[in-house]
From TrEMBL:
GO terms for molecular function: 4 iron, 4 sulfur cluster binding; catalytic activity; metal ion binding. Residues 30-255 form the Elp3/MiaA/NifB-like radical SAM core domain. CDD domains: Radical_SAM (cd01335). This is TIGR01212 family radical SAM protein. It comes from Candidatus Merdimorpha stercoravium.
Amino acid sequence: MIPESFPWGDALPYNSAAERLKERFGGRVQKVSLSGGFTCPNRDGRVGTGGCTFCNNEAFVPFYTHHADIDVQIEEGIGFLRKRYPRSARFVAYFQAYTNTYGDPDHLRDLYARVLSHPAISGLVIGTRPDCMDEAMLDFFATLSRTHFVSIEYGVESVYDDVLAQVNRGHDYAAARGAIRRTARWGLHTAAHFLFGLTGRQRELDSVRQINELPLSAVKFHQLQLMRDTPLAKRWLQGDRAGIHLFEHREEYEDFIIEVLERLRPDLPVERFISETPPRYRLAPDWGLEWRVPEIQREIIAKMRSGGHWQGRKFS
């Protein structure tokens, strides 16, 4: 039997980060994806070349981010979101693609201060790597957070060093754990995302225990999708499937992520538990051409309710 309410204060069977942001801002919050024109240290040779083997940044950046001018990106992004989500009350700037603290510090400070000066922008979400955040930048973001919402979002992907090496991340899990702890100590909203499908099912379920130990403000989960023109997809096409554990059917992933959520500590808000890639980029798995994230989310929530599952039910 599923409870009528949960410790996070609503009837959803998981602790929704979107709902927590609504409570904070007094209405629906949308992220405006922006591009700062950065790269990554495992692309330009500082720690490696080729980038993460699963990554194709073109697959998740909106059309308007191809403008070099950041103000044009903001205006076009907000215009697009207002048409798509008319009830949106607030907007936060989301620097997602590549590594958004990997650059000249003065340029970074000027860029983010400029974005926050826009009257429609209420905050920042900065996607970055654990090995590209020093104390000076944390101090800068902590200062911004006194007047605006600021979230630092780390790509962690896995708690297992062999998996991180396999996908050419260029850092180990200790680096991720250390960066998250330092960021949280500065009082910053600290998020991380993890990728499921790079090692076995039980091993990935076991990883939730380590995720629970991190001082995170929010977490993202997403399933492995093989994107065209990535090293991982090329290996798969050549018949080398080592380290690739695709969820071939959406029902398989739905059941898996419910198990993850049941093991997750109940006070940790979940930003998402599935991701979507445009079909023109997605090579595998084939879940059908028409599926969309909201549809899968509804299915997962319905399964949780009908099956008596909720976030933290198996947490100990």
